[in-house]
Amino acid sequence: MSRLLAMLVCVAALSGCARGDPVLSTPQMAAPARYATDLPPSGVDSEWWLGFDDPVLDALVRRGLEANLNVEAAAGRLASAEALLRAERSDRLPGIDGQAGVGIALADNSRVTADAGLFGLFNPDINGRLAAEIRAAAADYAEQDYLLADQRRLVAAAIASQYVEYRRTGARLDLLDQSTDLQEQTLRIVTLRFEAGLSANLDVRRAAADLAQTRAQRGLIAIARSQAENALAVLQAEPPGVFAVPEPAEATIPRYGLGPPAGVPADLLRRRTDILAAEARLERAAADIGIERADLRPSLTIPGTLGLGDGSLGGIFSNFLLSLGAAIDLPLFDGGRRRAEVEAAQFEAQARLAEYRATFLQSLGEVENALVSIDAYRQRNDELAEAIEQSETALSQSNALYREGLASLFDVLDAQRQLIASRQDLIDSEADLASSFVAFHAAVGSD
């Protein structure tokens, strides 16, 4: 026994000198000091969708985060990773198995035989493989934890985006009704003037064509509305066609009021869960290098057995036999396979580092794009509001001149088209602005 202990101490000492597994430090990223476009800071720094002040949207997001199947799947993968981490940690403890058997020996008057015993195995992890495997499993668990949070980020943004689209189509349908009413009034006036001999039949045809063209948009808007509603149903884990979005009080685009400040680009490294997941994958790659390096070192296992009985059924507890040993595996020659596997793990770590950097740069681009969009759509909305005001005045004046015979129907219809187009553009621009706020919060990793 003393020789066995001395040998174990010697092997452990030699192995300890060979240890040198890579330890990951968070990569330094060259992040800009500030974003190119500023967003004024405000009061809401969590549950960003509350900035829309829309109870329907709030209910949809909360329900979706609870019921969404992608979130549920991510939670299942997290639970699986946690179980695998516990399994890896259990390898640091001795394993014990039991065995028992009963048979009949045909010799010696068919004597009944019996045997039982305990078998144990302990790995002291002198080469560090178990420790590296635990690090790898812990990194996998961290990645799945971040991916669950990232899935919630994406689901909240997807629900908000589809809700904005649903509201956009509602506003477009409401505008369509207003536009058809306006064009129907024009058609009635033109028809009366034609019947009175004050206008040509060509004017009637032009007004009727414009009205039909406007009505023809209803089907396309209905398709977009149905698609948004069905997408919301899937995000809520509800069957499309059965789920119905509660109707808001007004057919308008939700406007974003308060929200968190953009912060600085370096904040993405601790707020964006997909970046943190990429960092966890980098940690896993570093642990894999340690696993492969461990195979270059000696390994040791300590098996033990405890036998019971003398072989007879009645003497099962009469004798006890205990044995303890040690098995050492010394890597000598494998044609370079183990070192090639270490190199492969090192190259994989380099790839993971490149992916980490690419994820950060992509996230940075998403924030910048969202900030630019917010600023641009705000300015566009102001200009479109001015265009609508001018178009309404032009239409009113052209109608008055047409009744007096001082303007042609073409002037009236052209003013109508400009007004309708400007109103449609404003609805779309307001929806794009709302979507830009959604994209911004998804990009900065808001809760």
Automatic annotation (TrEMBL):
Keywords: Coiled coil, Lipoprotein, Membrane, Palmitate, Signal, Transmembrane, Transmembrane beta strand
Compartments (UniProt record): Cell membrane
Molecular function GO labels: efflux transmembrane transporter activity
Main location: membrane
Topology within the bilayer: Lipid-anchor
Span of the signal peptide: 1-20
Coiled coil spans: 367-394
GO CC aspect terms: plasma membrane
Listed InterPro entries: MdtP/NodT-like (IPR010131), OMP_efflux (IPR003423)
Superkingdom: Bacteria
Protein family per UniProt: Belongs to the outer membrane factor (OMF) (TC 1.B.17) family.
NCBIfam families, alphabetized: outer_NodT (TIGR01845)
Protein name as annotated: Efflux transporter outer membrane subunit
Classification lineage: Bacteria, Pseudomonadati, Pseudomonadota, Alphaproteobacteria, Sphingomonadales
